[in-house]
Amino acid sequence: MEFRKVFDTIPEQFDKYRCRYSEELFAKLITYAELSPEKSVLELGPGTGQATEPILNTGCDYNAIELGEHLYAKMKRKYDQHPNFHIVNDDFITHDFGAQQFDLIYSAATIQWIPEEVAFGKTFELLKPGGILAMMLLHGDYKTPDEELYNKIQQVYDQYFKPETVYTHGSFRYASATNYGYTDFEKHEFYGKREFTADEYVAYCGTHCDHIVIPEPYKSKFFDGLREVVLEAGNKLVANETYILYLAKKPL
What we know:
The chain is 35% helix and 26% strand. The chain is α/β, with parallel strands linked by helices and 252 residues long. Helix 6 links the parallel strand 4 and strand 5 (127-141). Helix 7 (147-160) packs antiparallel against helix 10.
């Protein structure tokens, strides 16, 4: 199974434990894009809505395209009562949007699953002149809050983290947007903190694509090992989180 489809196997776990983004990040994006009921927005691969509500609640014409059928169904159950909510279950790479164009296209840890020339080329075509492309992602720092626990977690990884397929999508070049006609490329960082119990941390790690595909017997030993070291550390793990927002514009 493709990594970009594996999340669809765990919709409920994904919805409960996947990371959210900071209020400050959304405030920046909403202000920058001047979102209002007159603006049209497209979210790429919303999952189960980790970055949806703040945008949807602006009253904009919210549209989304979600590849996973179970994630799509979860989105429908959560948001279909909103009159400005629209979603299709399809692949952005091949979907025909017809004459649709948008004032804002955004993704939360999604665009890296799309080949660069499609990610930037197709979004550029779908944006209205002056439209905005926004890309957000999260970096978690587990080492600074507790280096001893971090090192024990790394030992578990060294021993049992043996996914069937190696994850390589972290090399996506966000700044390459300017090679496809985008201008005014910006990077903004916002900061927060997240605290996990052992069970919460294991469940959260279980939403990472390359963790889902660890084969047995390594998978059980890996997650049991993570749970054990966090329990030994007082059943508490703290992560310092950096929420990154990249912005780029289609010229007028």
